[in-house]
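Look over both lines:
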Amino acid sequence: MKSDPTKHERNCKKETKGAKEGNLALATLSLSKWRLTQSQRVLNDSSFDDSWAILSTAFTQIHNKNASELSFEVLYRNAYTVVLHKEGEKLYSAAKQVVAAHLKTIAAGEMQAAYQELVNAPGTRDYEKQDAGVRFLKVVRDAWEDHTLCMKMIRDVLMYLVLSHHGPSSHQECC
C-alpha cells in the first residue's frame, strides 16, 4: 500500500529538482533551515553595527535599571549571531568599553561625592568622621551590588560569547 508523500517529502523533491536546475539558493535552503551557507557566515560591518546598536542600547538600559523592558531572547540572538559570524572579539571589546564607561560615570558621580564628604568631614568629633565613613562604604557597597547584578544580566546576554569564544577561564576580569 503506497501512502501519499508527506508535505516534507514533496518539498524535498521540489528542492532537489531546483538544485538540479541550478537554483542553488533553493538547494541550500533544502539542506536545513538551521545550516548557513558560506556566504551567510560572513557578517558585514553594517550587520555588526546593527546588532551592536541593539546590544549597547540594552546594556545601557540594564545599567539604568530598565531591564524589565528588554527581550533577552532577542539580545541573546543578536550576540549569538555576532559570535557565530566570528566577530566575538569585536563584540567583547565593545562590551568592555560600555561597561568601563558606565563604571567611570559611577566613580565620578556618587562615589566621588561620598569620598569628598569623607575627606572633608569635620574632624573635631570621632563620630562625624565615622558617619562619613559609613556613608561612603554604603555608597561603595550599593554600587558594587548594582554592578554585579548588571554584569550577571550582561553575562546572560553574552553567554555564547563567554562559553564558546573565550572559553570558561579567559578574560576573568570582565565577568
